[in-house]
Amino acid sequence: EEWAAAMFSGTQDVNSVRIGFTTREAQGLPSFLLRKTELDEKKPSHVFFAIFLSVLSIGGAWAWLSRRLSPAAQWMGWIALLPAVQPLAWFHVFIFAYPLLVLGAERALRENRREARGWRFAGFVFAALLIGAVTAKTMGTLGGELELCSVKLWGLLLAVAIWALMGAVRPGQTSHMGGL
Prior knowledge:
Layout: H1 2-9, E1 11-14, E2 17-20, H2 29-36, H3 44-65, H4 71-80, H5 82-85, H6 98-109, H7 114-132, H8 136-148, H9 151-167
Antiparallel strand pairs: 1-2
């Protein structure tokens, strides 16, 4: 019952742990906006505004970037982007990014052009490290500061951008990502 109340308030303490939209554990774009702007996490209208901006900007960008991808590749991106627009996107919510990271890295390794293969694979590995390894527990103060900048969000957006670039096809060309 306490957890449900805290989840919907976004600003309460549960067992002496603060549950809030602006804690370092909240890594989505709404939390980043609430942390870095004059928006107040205690005002529902401000929280909804941050969510609206996040959905509009990330959803709009993905709709445009993915326009030349297969439907399956588009959906892979939509699923991966779920944490980006979550107001309480704690670390575990980023599990939605891992299918895209794994498939993207695998596709990058199959790339015919050596230069593209290298930077794309490295990009997915770097994105995975940002999402999964950069924390206050692994990197101390620097990791905590990076978490306050929503490092997991930026890793996710990097991975999704590389995914879109890999699957983009020119008019009259078929996707080289197969079903994905």
